[in-house]
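sry for the spam today, last one i promise. C-alpha cells for design, 444 residues
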C-alpha cells in the first residue's frame, strides 16, 4: 500500500472532480494506492476507483491509515501525470459525472506510453479495463507508482546535471494532464472579424504570455485585447478536437483577458474570419493550464503549413507552398488580395523571421502604393460622377479648350458688334444717297 499526499495542483484537480461528481466527501488530500485500487480518503466517507472492473463509487468505510506517513508528491510531474490518468480512464468510461473525454483509445494509449517511457512501462487502456506491463509482464498500478517513486529518488542528481537540451527533449515527448482538460475541450466553429493593428517594438518586447506565446497585431473579437500566438514546428503540429473532427494545429491564438483561444479553420487564415474557438469563461486557472499545454510543444519558429484536418494530415500528395523569396519575386503582378494574404502569412509565422525582416518592408511599400493609387482612382471616380464634363487630365484639357472657346467667342462677338455698327453706318449712308437721289428724280 502506498500513501501519497497531494500537492496544490492535484488537490485542486481532484477536489474539482469530487464537486463535479456531486460527492459529499471531506477529502483529506491523501491517495491510497493498493494493487489496482485508488482510494481518496475522506472523513467518514471515501471515494474508490478500480481499474479492473471500472467501478467508481463512494462508501462510508473507515480506512485506518497513518496519514503522517504519506509521501508528499511535491513537483514530481511523472507522478502527477500517472495520478491524473485516473481521470482520463474513468472519464472515458463514463464513470465520472460531468467529465467527458473525447480523445479516442489509441490516442490516449499513445499519450500514456509517452509518459511512461521513462520507467519502461506500457499502458493499455480499453473499454473493459486499464492494465500495465513491464517487459511484457503484467504489473499492478501500485507497482507502477512505486517504480515512479524509485526513479524519482534515483534520478534527482542526474536531472540536476542534465543539459537544457536534454531535458527539453524529454519534455517534448510528454503531455500534461491539466485543469484545462476538465472542460469538454471541443473547439467550436464560428465566424469572427479579427481586426489588426501594427505592434510597436515595446509591445513586442514586453507583451508576452510565456509558454511560447508571442504578441500579434490581431485583436480579440470579443474584448479587443491583443491576441498572442503559438507556432508549432513543421511535422509537430498539435492535435485538437473540433465540432468538425480532429484538426492538427500549425498555430493557435490566445486572449489572456477573456480566457479564449482561437485558431483558423484548415486552409484558412485568421483574416478570413472562419475559425474555431475555445472559451474557458471565468475559469482563469483552467485557461492558464491549457495555455501551458498548448505552449509546451510550441516554438519561436516558422511553419509553412495551414491547419489541417486529421484525414489529410501528412499526406504524401500535399503541395509544398512557395518559399518567401519565390512569393515576393513579382509583387507588382500580385493582386492586392494576394498581397494582403502574403502579409498575413509573414505576420503569423509561415516564414522564417530572417526572411520576414528582409522582405516585410518591400511588401508593405507595395501595399501602400496600391492603397495610394486606389485613393487617387477613387477621387477621380467621384470627380467624374459630380462633374461629368471634367474627368482627370482629360477634364482639365476640356476645360481649357472651353475657356479658349469662350474667349474666342467673346472676341468674335466684339468684332461682330463692331462689324454690325460699320455695316449699319454704311447702310445709313447708302440710304441717304438713295433718298437724295430719289428726291431729285421725283422733283424733276
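last one done:
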Amino acid at each position: 500500500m502506498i500513501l501519497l499526499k497531494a500537492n496544490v495542483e492535484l488537490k485542486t484537480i481532484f477536489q474539482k472532480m469530487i464537486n463535479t461528481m456531486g460527492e459529499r466527501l471531506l477529502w483529506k488530500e491523501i491517495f491510497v494506492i493498493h494493487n489496482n485500487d485508488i482510494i481518496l480518503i475522506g472523513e467518514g466517507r471515501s471515494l474508490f476507483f478500480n481499474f479492473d472492473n471500472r467501478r467508481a463509487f463512494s462508501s462510508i468505510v473507515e480506512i485506518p491509515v497513518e496519514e503522517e506517513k504519506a509521501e508528499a508528491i511535491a513537483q514530481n510531474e511523472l507522478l502527477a501525470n500517472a495520478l491524473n490518468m485516473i481521470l482520463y480512464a474513468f472519464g472515458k468510461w463514463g464513470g465520472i459525472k460531468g467529465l467527458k473525454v473525447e480523445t479516442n483509445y489509441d490516442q490516449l494509449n499513445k499519450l500514456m506510453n509517452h509518459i511512461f517511457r521513462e520507467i519502461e512501462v506500457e499502458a493499455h487502456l480499453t473499454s473493459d479495463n486499464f492494465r500495465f506491463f513491464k517487459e511484457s509482464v503484467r504489473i499492478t498500478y501500485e507497482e507502477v507508482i512505486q517504480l515512479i517513486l524509485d526513479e524519482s529518488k534515483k534520478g534527482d542528481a542526474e536531472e540536476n546535471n542534465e543539459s537544457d537540451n536534454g531535458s527539453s527533449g524529454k519534455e517534448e515527448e510528454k503531455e500534461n494532464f491539466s485543469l484545462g482538460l476538465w472542460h469538454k475541450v471541443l473547439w467550436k466553429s464560428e465566424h469572427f472579424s479579427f481586426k489588426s493593428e501594427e505592434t510597436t517594438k515595446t509591445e513586442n518586447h514586453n507583451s508576452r504570455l510565456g509558454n511560447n506565446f508571442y504578441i500579434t497585431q490581431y485583436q480579440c473579437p470579443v474584448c479587443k485585447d491583443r491576441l498572442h500566438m503559438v507556432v508549432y514546428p513543421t511535422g509537430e503540429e498539435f492535435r485538437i478536437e473540433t465540432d468538425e473532427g480532429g484538426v492538427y494545429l500549425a498555430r493557435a491564438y490566445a486572449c489572456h483577458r477573456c480566457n479564449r483561444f482561437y485558431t483558423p479553420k484548415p486552409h484558412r487564415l485568421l483574416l478570413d474570419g472562419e475559425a474555431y474557438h475555445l472559451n474557458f469563461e471565468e475559469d482563469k486557472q483552467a485557461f492558464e493550464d491549457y495555455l501551458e499545454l498548448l505552449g509546451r510543444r510550441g516554438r519561436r519558429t516558422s511553419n509553412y503549413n495551414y491547419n489541417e484536418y486529421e484525414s489529410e494530415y501528412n499526406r504524401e500528395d500535399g503541395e509544398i507552398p512557395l518559399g518567401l523569396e519565390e512569393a515576393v519575386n513579382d509583387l507588382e503582378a500580385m493582386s492586392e488580395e494576394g498581397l494582403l494574404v502574403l502579409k498575413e502569412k509573414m505576420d503569423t509565422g509561415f516564414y522564417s523571421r530572417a526572411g520576414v525582416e528582409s522582405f516585410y518592408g518591400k511588401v508593405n511599400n507595395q501595399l501602400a502604393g496600391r492603397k495610394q493609387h486606389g485613393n487617387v482612382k477613387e477621387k477621380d471616380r467621384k470627380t467624374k460622377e459630380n462633374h461629368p464634363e471634367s474627368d482627370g487630365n482629360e477634364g482639365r484639357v476640356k476645360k481649357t479648350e472651353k475657356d479658349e472657346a469662350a474667349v474666342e467667342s467673346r472676341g468674335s462677338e466684339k468684332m461682330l458688334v463692331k462689324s454690325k455698327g460699320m455695316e449699319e453706318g454704311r447702310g445709313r449712308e447708302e440710304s441717304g444717297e438713295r433718298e437724295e437721289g430719289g428726291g431729285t428724280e421725283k422733283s424733276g
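The CA atoms of residues 28 and 42 lie 5 Å apart. ok im logging off now
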